[in-house]
Amino acid sequence: RDTGGTARGQHAGLPFYTVGQRHGLGLGNPRPLYVVALEPETNEVIVGEDRDLWTPEIDVEAANFIAVDRLSEPTRVLAKIRYAHEPQAATAAPLSADRLRLTFDAPQRAVAPGQAAVLYDATDPEVLLGGGTICRPSKSPHASGEGAGLTWSRHA
């Protein structure tokens, strides 16, 4: 499945790909293609253009808090979503006791589900509030029909 209903080929297995990856895809296209999502349920690698990698918000599960008991209302934070990533200004809104939505001030590129999201106090970046596991971008471009997302399936 893709935004146009077209499969682009076969892949070598989901563990060999990372969200944001461009090289080693072996797919011809007039513009560069990137891995924009991995779909373990259907064993698909979703590829698209750079614009398909950007998301304004993400959902975080298995959230644990250190400096506070929990978030009871939307809270300004600095969120770090990869190791070598500068913390980014965002609002963390609780969805349940251990799940939250991060809405960034500026869209983030190549957010990878399964990675950690670490939250710091927006007014005092030395204070670690807590963190959790990124489950997926909340507004996935290939799911909404926007952009040029393409499905790349593994032949089972």
Our estimate of the beta-strand percent is 35-45%
Q: How does the major sheet shape up?
A: 6 strands, antiparallel, barrel
Query: What structural category characterises the helix and strand content?
Result: mainly beta
Low-confidence stretches: 140-156
Strand segment tally: 9
Indicate the CATH topology of the largest domain: Elongation Factor Tu (Ef-tu), domain 3
- Overall radius of gyration: 17 Å
Task: Write the element-wise H/E pattern from the N-terminal end onward.
Answer: EEEEEEEEHE
Strand neighbour order, sheet with most strands:
3-6-5-4-7-8
In short:
The chain is mainly β.
Structure explained in plain terms:
The radius of gyration is 17 Å and the shape is elongated. The protein has one helix spanning 141-144; strands at residues 34-39, 44-48, 54-65, 75-80, 88-96, 99-109, 116-121, 128-137, 150-153. The strands form 2 sheets. A 6-stranded antiparallel barrel has the order 3-6-5-4-7-8. The chain has a 3-stranded antiparallel sheet with strand order 1-2-9, with no helix packed on it. Residues 140-156 have low confidence and may be disordered. The protein is mainly beta and 156 residues long. A hairpin with a 6-residue loop joins strand 7 (116-121) and strand 8.
Question: What is the topology?
Answer:
Elements: E1 34-39, E2 44-48, E3 54-65, E4 75-80, E5 88-96, E6 99-109, E7 116-121, E8 128-137, H1 141-144, E9 150-153
